[in-house]
Amino acid sequence: MATPDLRLSRLRGTWLYGTLLLSFGAFAVVIALAPAPGTDPGRALTGLLFLGSSMHVAATGWFYTLPEIRAHARANLGRYATVPLALVAGTAAVAAALTEPAFRWALYAFFAWQFFHFQKQNLGMAALTAGALRAGSLSRAERDAITVTGLAGTVALLSRPELLALHDARLGWVFPVACAVFLAGIGLGLHGMRRRRSRPPAFAAVYLGSLLFFTPVFVLDAPYAAVAGLIVAHGLQYLLIVGMVAVTPRPGGGLPGVATMFAVALVGGLLLNLASHLHGSPHAWERALYGAFLGVTMAHFVIDAGLWRLRDEFPRRFLTAHLPYLLKP
User: Fold this and answer.
1) CA 59, CA 261: separation in Å to the nearest integer?
2) 175-198 exposure pattern, b = at least 16 Cβ within 10 A, e = fewer
3) Phi then psi for 111, rounded to 5 degrees?
């Protein structure tokens, strides 16, 4: 029988190497499956995008099945109820009121928030890995480098509207500037890595993966090849760590956490996926459903920003109880 320390070590390895496999594997598989520009993705890529987009967003709803999360939400209604509901209602109303071509301009703001949210998760993954491997906290330079490359990658993506099916905002001149900033951020990150005392290979791989996350945006021209890998890698990272929170035995028994999480993610993901295809509808109520889909996605950004903020007392206590092999008690 495995000792407690050995079990925790195995769980740590499952998360760490699972994250690396899913992240790097997502980019490799998506690029291999990406269709030519102007053609539709195959079933395999469509399924991966469902996992990485709609299903991962819906998985956030599972947290509300936990009594301690509901109690925390009641004490912080602004972040966990008022703002999320306002985002859903607001985007639904705007999408219903505007024609699809007009609403598409608003998507610049949505995508800016979405892709920077991706990099915030990458920063959290790198910091969590450093702590789990006792490699020391990320330095200011290491943190700033991930933030800079994320900002540069997001700006570069928005300057290439053909990758996101957006209207051309005449931002092409920004792309070489974003490229220069991206390279500067990589240099800053490598400098920070060189100065640290402890660089376990697994930490180095996670950190470099975070630093270089937006590379496809700068080097690939096909929309699915350049963008879908970001979406799939981000979503699979999230599903893995939420699944590992869910696998923790619940006091007093109850429904298996992973089964409940999967059911919430699957059913919610299917509903979100249906709504995500209604942007071009001539009917206002269907465009409102598409707006609500975007609002739910943004609500996910807001809720997760609170639940995973480890400098706050409740998230750190909750996640330490569920992920003791990653966080110090």
Assistant:
1) 6
2) beebbebbeebbebbbebbeebee
3) -65, -35
CA distance 224 to 161: 13
What is the per-residue pLDDT across 275-294, written as a single tens digit (0 to 9) for each?
999 988 899 999 999 999 99
Q: Find out whether 154 and 119 touch, Cβ atoms under 8 Å.
A: yes
Q: Report residue 101's pLDDT band, with 50, 70 and 90 as the boundaries.
A: confident
Where b means 16+ CB within 10 Å and e means fewer, 135-170 reads beebbeebbbbbbbbbbbbbbbbbbbbebbebeeee
Q: What is the mean pLDDT of residues 64-87?
A: 96
CB 164 within 8 A of CB 223: yes
- Judged on CB neighbours under 10 Å (0-12, 13-18, 19+), 43 is exposed
Contacts of 28 (CB under 8 A, 6+ apart): none
Residues 6+ positions from 314 with CB-CB distance below 8 Å: 72
Distance CA 146, CA 168 (A): 28
The Cα 229–Cα 29 span in angstroms is 8
pLDDT of residue 2: 58
pLDDT for 169 = 87
Give, in order, the Cα–Cα distances in Å from 24 to each of 31, 132, 141, 197, 220: 11, 20, 24, 26, 16
